[in-house]
Amino acid sequence: MLRLEPGRLGGLFDLALPEPLRQLPETLARIDELLLDDRLLAPFRAHWEQEVLGGLMVSARWGRPTIPMSTYVRLMLIKHHYGWGSEVLVREVADSLHLRCFCGIGLLESVPTSPPSAS
């Protein structure tokens, strides 16, 4: 299940990183600017709200832990851009400060494991 909004980002350890380590590489920075536009997530938000209102999401107690839609979209974008499988995606994002920052995953947060594949 996806959450509409991300949780708190930027813990103490994230903020303690030197500025050059917090800056995204140029390509990711450009994509990040595009993804900050709320209109991009509007179709995801509408679909999620339709499922909730239609009773299709009965319980948040079962299934995989919830993540913000924006994090999911960013993870899937990286996955498809590099042609990685789910296991490689999780490993690479966990090991990269830039990819964690791009996806909105703090240093002390776990990277969501085995994200479902998006066709």
Number of strands: 2
C-alpha Rg (nearest Å): 15 Å
* Mean pLDDT over all positions: 78
Helix content: 55-70%
Strand content: under 5%
> What's the number of helices?
7
Which regions have little confidence, pLDDT < 50, spanning 5+ residues? 1-9, 115-119
The overall number of domains is: 1
Principal-axis shape equals globular
SSE class:
mainly alpha
First-to-last CA distance: 17 Å
Order of helices and strands: EHHHHEHHH
The biggest sheet, with number of strands, parallel, antiparallel or mixed sense and barrel status, is: 2 strands, parallel
Q: Please state how the strands of the largest beta sheet are arranged side by side.
A: 1-2
Characterization of this structure:
There is one protein chain. Helix content is 55%, strand content 3%. The protein is mostly helical and 119 residues long. It has one domain (2-103). The chain has a two-stranded parallel sheet with strand order 1-2. α6 packs across α7. The model is unreliable at 1-9 and 115-119 (pLDDT under 50).
List keywords for this structure.
119 residues; mainly alpha; two-stranded parallel ribbon; 7 helices; disordered N terminus; disordered C terminus
Give a quick precis of the structure:
The protein is mainly alpha-helical. It has 7 helices and 2 strands. The protein has a two-stranded parallel sheet.
What topology does this entry show?
Blueprint: E1 2-3, H1 12-16, H2 19-22, H3 26-35, H4 38-53, E2 67-68, H5 69-82, H6 86-95, H7 97-103
Parallel strand pairs: 1-2
